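Q: Sequence in, structure out?
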Amino acid sequence: MIAIKLFALILYSFLAYVAITRPLTLEANLCTGILVALAIAHAVECVLFRKTIAEAPGHPAWHTLNVFLFGVFHMFLMKEAILSHGERAA
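A: Exactly. Output:
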């Protein structure tokens, strides 16, 4: 899972780099569009998964940020944490 998150951060960095360093080009517009589409999609995921975020052990703001950045990939980790936290409590 860490490799996927690192790849996502590298991808976001690359898209932002191209969008900033090549203004008014097709590449910059494409990268900006991809970043905006990802931001909207992940914001929707934050709203849809708010109950799981609230149930996960740890601070909800941290989980919301991770879901915004990594989406479903962080959901797998939260669900595992919820299950392991429930087993320890029982």
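Helices lie at 2-21, 26-48, 50-55, 60-70, 72-89.
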